[in-house]
Amino acid sequence: MPLGILRQRAFLIVTILCVHTGVISVAAQELAQTQQGVITTFAPIVEKVAPSVVTVFTTQTVSRGMTTAPFGDDALRQFFGGQLPRQGKQTLQGLGSGVIVSPDGYILTANHVVSGAEEIMIGLGTDLRKFKAKKVGTDPGTDVALLKIEEKNLPAITFADSEKARAGDIVLAIGNPFGLRQTVTMGIISAVGRGGMGIVDYENFIQTDAAINMGNSGGALVDSEGRLLGINTAIFSRSGGNQGVGFAIPANLARDVMQSLREKGRVVRGYIGASVQTLTPELAEAMKLKGQPTGALVGEVTPKSPSEKTGIKTGDLITGVNGKKISDARELRLMIGSMAPGTKVEIEVNREGQNKTLNVELGEMPAGVAEEGAEASPEESAQPEKATVFGGVAVADVTDDIRTALNLSKDVKGAVIAEIDADSPAAKAGLREGDVIQEVNKQPVKNAKDLVAISKRLKPNEKILIRVWSQGRSGFVALEPK
Fold first, then answer.
1. Catalytic residue of the set 52, 217, 470, 474
2. What's the whole-number mean pLDDT along residues 341-349?
3. Is the pTM here over 0.85, yes or no?
4. Long-range CB contacts (within 8 A, 24+) of 122-125
5. pLDDT tens digits along 260-289
6. Catalytic, out of 52, 97, 112, 223
């Protein structure tokens, strides 16, 4: 090979190597600069926050009835040496977490951690000094409880503004999973404003993938600055352990509940006196609402309530409060519940396609009004004459026996579902035995005969809007034609 070509190739190789070396050098510099801004440890934050997270010990005595064992007695006697203990009293001990929120001994935890507890002890610090705690107040509606111990100069946590929390923010969960004190896990906020899961009445959870397990309940969810973002309360799990879906009560909500519990010993909420449900596309179609409407559909108005006094009616769609749009029933419940009784609000409703604004003065929510009605079904002894409607639904008149069995008030009229085919459109829409059909396409139903007559006049291939009393309250169901 000619010497000139060799020199050219050698020069090319050297050039490539130089360029490659230069790229590596630049990349190394960029990496070094990036590493300066990367958080490589959360130790300072943990050292700051961990003393504010406490261990909650509970003791509860329960009566033990007949024991049911998954295996036969013979398989277990070898462990117990004879007859198994079956009756008597049993002492249950629980373990959870809590967060110190004031230097003078106030502690936030989850209500379910201390519910039913006869004795509550708080363990502080790494040496687990124990102090007897008393309940200041509890709020099952949000799963928040406030405790108090007689101690001073405690390391209180700093609250963050949980309204500013965003999906993707880094968070730390600190608590006592499985009794392992002050365990720290890290993750991100997966979502905010989670609700509709039926865990509590007022759901507005922060969802996180930071590992949360049994014993974490009542512990702290903190941001990257060590401020309290939420109180850990629940997980979604098929195994009982962490699967990356945990929920925390937002700090702002927990703080509002705490202040009410401190001042009044209970949570006082605003109240309009209307049973509402979320408007689904099926209900919107059945109600012939145009566009893509959202809101809270009024299924029932409580007599002598603020709603009745103002003129809110069954079938109204509440679309806004004080100029803020309402997307679903949960959002309305949270907004009204966060206001004080006596507050005057403007409620926007859509009534049969017409928009109206009503001025409502909120009342005070009566105790227990948010609780679900007990599920009931007609007694087998009650066998009134049945008639079939909607294909697969057998209905009957509401007799005195049925009214007693279902705990129906005298003003609830209609036709009770005595039997229902599990494969029928009605069953798939959510109707069940014991439900009382009160209206069909806004036509009142007084008895089974009325319902049969109305059903015969229904147009084919048209959605049916049914108002139904179910589980203690009235609501709407959209039914596909048979």
1. 217
2. 93
3. no
4. 122/54, 122/55, 122/56, 122/57, 122/98, 122/147, 122/149, 123/54, 123/55, 123/56, 123/57, 123/181, 124/54, 124/151, 124/154, 125/51
5. 999 888 888 899 999 898 888 888 888 888
6. 112
